[in-house]
Amino acid sequence: MLQNTFIHIPGIGPKTERMLWRRGILTWQAFLDLGGPIFPPSRDAWVRKELSASIRHSQDPAYFSGRLPASEMWRLFEAFKARSVYLDIETSGGWQGVDEITVIGIYDGREVQTFVNGINLDEFETAIASYDLVVSFNGACFDLPFIRSRFPGISLPRAHIDLRFILKRMGYAGGLKKIEKDLGLERMPGIQGLDGWEAVRLWQAHEQGDPTALKTLIAYNTADIVNLKPLMEMAYEHLRASLMRESRITSIIRGITANLVPGQKNFSSAPGLRAGLLSDLSAGDTCPLRILDFVELRLPPLISHKETAPSRQSRQKNPSASIY
Q1: What is the pLDDT of residues 216-253, one digit of tens each?
Q2: Structural domain boundaries in the chain
Q3: Cα atoms in the Cβ-side hemisphere of radius 13 Å centred on 212
Q4: Sheet containing 133-136: which strands, arranged edge to edge?
Q5: Exposure string over 219-257, b if 16+ CB within 10 A, otherwise e
Q6: Distance from chain centroid for Cα 217
């Protein structure tokens, strides 16, 4: 998805990006390989310069982190998946007047590492330096500020994807545990139902000598980070497919309306459309449309410029009349 992205270039927004996709310019290299300009000459030269720089920095997530809006950082995931890490912290919740980090968990998709206050928390700073992209849930507001406060001068991964806001954009609101449940992710019986306040209580119990509390707290934190992986993968595939599908459908609809004759409602009979559109709709793996329903689709009748909306008097006589 990263090399399909153009919105990181100053002056190119979502509409222009979709225009490029609809014209078949799907990658940076495809733009550079064009024989002629897409934009006015000076702007076209600027875009080409920026795309060449993007190719040179294609292995540097920090380059794109400073150019993509936070809502579009998910586009980095596939390109830097092998160098990404899932992160979550637990805190003391202000117990005894102190709010400090108690546990930090990180998961790179293969191995979980846990760092505990009073045991090995200081080792976290070295461990996190191995990664280029961090994925969290509400980390922008909670986890990362806490970490920067505890480790002044720490070098965190420059690129950050906060799943809280990405999942909300997809319609999944609330806390991590609620969203996991909504999506069918389950936790081990021993930690089901635990939440952030219970994590605070477990740390208090550990401080007071409970021999099992820390083990349960670590299991809770581990579930947080391990479950971020399927959530991130699901979100990435969903947003990527939606973006590509939206662009493709827009292009198809433009083709339909361009080929319809006045008054035609059923585009399945439009000259030359059926075969071409069926081919377009079935191309690739990001447009899961019901192609067999093609012939059942209808468009509303085209309104002539001579037609006018019903007058107030006619609507009073005929309450069912409405303005389009």
Answers
A1: 999 999 999 999 999 999 999 999 988 877 666 555 54
A2: 2-58, 81-235
A3: 2
A4: 112-116, 101-107, 84-91, 133-136, 159-162
A5: bbbbbbbbbbbebbebbbeebbeebbeebbeebbeebbe
A6: 29
- Note the pTM of the prediction, 2 decimals: 0.74
- Domain at 81-235: CATH code: 3.30.420.10
- Return the exposure string of 98-135: e unless at least 16 CB atoms fall within 10 Å of the residue's CB, then b: eeebbbbbbbbeeeebbbbbeeebeebbeebeebbbbb
Q: What angle do CA 294, 299, 301 make, to 5 degrees?
A: 150
Say if domain 2-58 classifies as CATH 1.10.150. yes
Backbone φ and ψ of 197, nearest 5° = -70, -35
DSSP assignment of 187-233 = --GGGTT--HHHHHHHHHHHHTT-TTHHHHHHHHHHHHHHHHHHHHH
